[in-house]
């Protein structure tokens, strides 16, 4: 498996954050965002090419999960907005 | 001389035929058309530069790792604020949300300082 380039990793990070925005539910949206940022930070120091590639492909499969789940969650969107979404 | 001129002008000026009821119906419609606000035009409510600068600085200052006192309109995210490339992406995403924009990846990669972000948002026709 080829080692992903820096731009590919940044692009995956951005795609994950974009897919996080799609969730209608505040809690899931924030969780997806937090989970993305935390795991990229956690793997920031990886230097071994094979572990970088493994983390990258794991991220890609998580992106598929997030995209699929945002569709599912949009079918069952909460009827009442979260208090955190209500701007004063 | 004057009377000849007057005749020449009057010959070209057309006085509309006024129908008592018809003019009342048509006149308000016409004036309404010319003065109506073009609500879908993007340039009517274009953002002020000061406003863009203030809002972008607020976003950058509210970022957890940033020391708010160091933030200026010219600050470079990675060189001056000690952020990394992931933080850079996070800030750009926050700017997208604030101004309700979608910045393409290629453009977003180039924005690495407050100055560039302000310029990009200010020149974006859809920023709000």
Automatic annotation (TrEMBL), chain A:
Pfam families: Complex1_LYR. Residues 8-65 form the Complex 1 LYR protein domain. Transmembrane segments: none annotated. One of its GO terms (biological process) is iron-sulfur cluster assembly. InterPro entries: Complex1_LYR_dom, Complex1_LYR_LYRM4. This is Complex 1 LYR protein domain-containing protein. It comes from Deinandra increscens subsp. villosa.
Automatic annotation (TrEMBL), chain B:
It comes from the Eukaryota. Pathway: Lipid metabolism; fatty acid biosynthesis. It is found in: Mitochondrion. Keywords: Electron transport, Fatty acid biosynthesis, Fatty acid metabolism, Lipid biosynthesis, Lipid metabolism, Mitochondrion, Phosphopantetheine, Phosphoprotein, Respiratory chain, Transit peptide, Transport. The keyword Plastid does not apply. GO terms for molecular function: acyl binding; acyl carrier activity. Residues 50-125 form the Carrier domain. GO terms for cellular component: mitochondrion. Belongs to the acyl carrier protein (ACP) family. Complex I is composed of at least 49 different subunits. Carrier of the growing fatty acid chain in fatty acid biosynthesis. May be involved in the synthesis of short and medium chain fatty acids. Accessory and non-catalytic subunit of the mitochondrial membrane respiratory chain NADH dehydrogenase (Complex I), which functions in the transfer of electrons from NADH to the respiratory chain. This is Acyl carrier protein.
């Amino acid at each position: 498996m080829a080692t992903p380039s820096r731009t590919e990793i940044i692009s995956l990070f951005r795609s994950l954050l974009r897919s996080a925005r799609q969730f209608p539910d505040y809690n899931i949206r924030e969780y997806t965002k937090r989970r993305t940022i935390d795991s990229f930070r956690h793997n920031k120091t990886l230097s071994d090419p094979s572990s970088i590639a493994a983390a990258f492909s794991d991220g890609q499969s998580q992106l598929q999960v997030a995209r699929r789940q945002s569709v599912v969650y949009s079918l069952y969107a909460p009827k009442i907005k979260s208090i955190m979404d209500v701007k004063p | 001389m004057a009377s000849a001129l007057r005749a020449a002008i009057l010959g070209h000026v057309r006085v509309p035929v006024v129908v008592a009821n018809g003019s009342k119906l048509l006149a308000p419609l016409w004036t309404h058309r010319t003065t109506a606000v073009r609500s879908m035009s993007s340039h009517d409510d274009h953002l002020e530069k000061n406003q863009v600068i203030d809002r972008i600085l607020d976003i950058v200052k509210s970022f957890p790792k940033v020391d708010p006192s160091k933030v200026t309109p010219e600050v470079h995210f990675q060189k001056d604020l000690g952020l990394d490339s992931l933080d850079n992406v996070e800030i750009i995403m926050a700017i997208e949300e604030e101004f309700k924009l979608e910045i393409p990846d290629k453009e977003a990669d180039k924005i690495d300082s407050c100055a560039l972000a302000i310029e990009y948002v200010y020149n974006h026709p859809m920023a709000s």
